[in-house]
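Bug report (template v2)

What were you trying to do?
Predict the complex of my protein with arginine.

What happened?
Run completed; filing so the output is reviewed.

Input:
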Amino acid sequence: MFKDIKADIKEKLENIYQTELVVEASPRQKSDLAIPLFKLAKETNKNIQEVAGEIKEHLKDIKVIKELQFERGFLNIYFDRKKYANKVIDIITKEQEEYPKFKKKNEVVSIDFSSPNIAKNFNIGHLRSTVIGASLAKIYEKTGYDVIKINHLGDFGTQFGKLIVAYNLWGNEKGLNEDPIKYLQELYIKFHNEADLDSSLEDKAREVFKHLEDGDEETTKLWQKFRDLSLVEFKRIYDILNINFDSYDGEAFFVDKTAEVVKILEDKKLLKLDEGAQIVDLEEYDLLPALIKRADGATLYLTRDIAAVLYRMRTYNSKRILYVVGNEQKLHFEQLKKVVELMGYDDVKIEHVNFGLVLLGGKKMRSREGNVVNLKDVLIEAKDLALEAIEEKNPNLKDKEKVAEKIGVSAVIFNDLKNDRNLDIEFNLEQMLSYEGLTGPYLQYSSVRIYSILKNQEIGKEKDIELYEDDIAYELILELSKFSEVLIRAVNENAPFVISRYLLNLAKVFNQFYANHQVLVEDEKRRNANLTLIKAVRIVLNEGMRLLGMSILDEM
Ligand code: ARG
């Protein structure tokens, strides 16, 4: 709504004046929109008052505008609050959780996210990719794109040679089946310790890895088992987070598709021999050389990623691929982008959606050091904390355990998405589970509060919309009408946090409204107006939370 009116005004004036104009929300001016006129006055060589007068004429038949006022260089636009509110409320009431509806774009966006490495812990770092990626997928879908969610599993590489050697020497099925990932990690560590004493182990691992590359049956079977068992563990986490993928084709899937990549690079004369290895020289683009094939013939992470780009273009007809991966792979994705471009595929857009670190007490969380936090444990602890809060605040709640899990998981998700993804995030469970402040529970609680008011009420059709002229009520309406603009910003900047910030503000304004207004008043029409308004707030709050990946609750 808001964005449409803004765009209409902008377009109309730009057509008349043939120059770019700013039409912006202006909380500081206390109007609904403001147009700075300095530039236009200068360009048209007119007195600024005169320009203001002209524009007032041009805009006078836009129905929703009630008043136009020139003030210190700005033309302030005031909407007819009743008319505007009525429109906003009507649309939300009609579209419900589909609000705001977007047109289908017929464009496929692939989102490569989560993508953990098998036989290794899914740690808190992978959580960021998972949470950000899953939210982006929902935001893209909401705004009209077709989305393919890809889990590009790290299921290939020389480490599997080592793992298989270690397993054959020291492992057994029983141990493996008990706690697969933990067991495999321990075997991996043992391999390295032993290899320090006996270097022939490394040679053996290389040999076994070669077998794996060549598709040897025995070796592949074992690898498959490691993969399957790891995936079962990962899926447990995805279930808790309520996330699914369209594809789990990981690196291994692309191994036999790298031959074509090498061939194209050869044909285009892009390959160079460097100490036996094949590389693409990227010096003129200020990038380190892209390693395509090692001296021993093995392909690399990058080669498999190039093959994956071609596959995604062809299989999904996807011309845009997002990679939600931490900052430490910045160079990798720059190389990928460049090589794909040099190969001649210039209509595919590769975007590295990077993000900051997860800090624990101000320090980086690492997987190889002491301060690893296992994600499953974290989610369980979050749930326990939520349960404590319920016991204190609402001990008679039904399904306490289930609700606690939803609060806990949503709190972790929101903590990850509440700030610009490029910033590091602090991981403090107590803080993120607080019912006050910039937290998930705060948002959920605001929605629950509305539900509890609405629960036993019928909302009649006739409503006294004069109520919406009141400052706080109108502020709520304005916020609600800005939802589509917020979603567009979120999608354009790959930034779920734009939605988080919006929701926090919406909840704040709602809570102000609630503190200052009695909702369940005697007067039926007024009551209807109140209830309709808060119901609209709940719709938008819930839809926003859903887009972030949070759970929506009726009670907590
Ligand atoms: N498995 C990698 C890691 O955990 C991330 C893979 C990201 N996706 C990709 N297509 N390279 O570091």
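What did the reviewer find?
Confidence is low (pLDDT under 50) at residues 367-372. The pocket of arginine is lined by residues 112, 115-117, 152, 154, 305, 323, 325 (CB under 6 Å).
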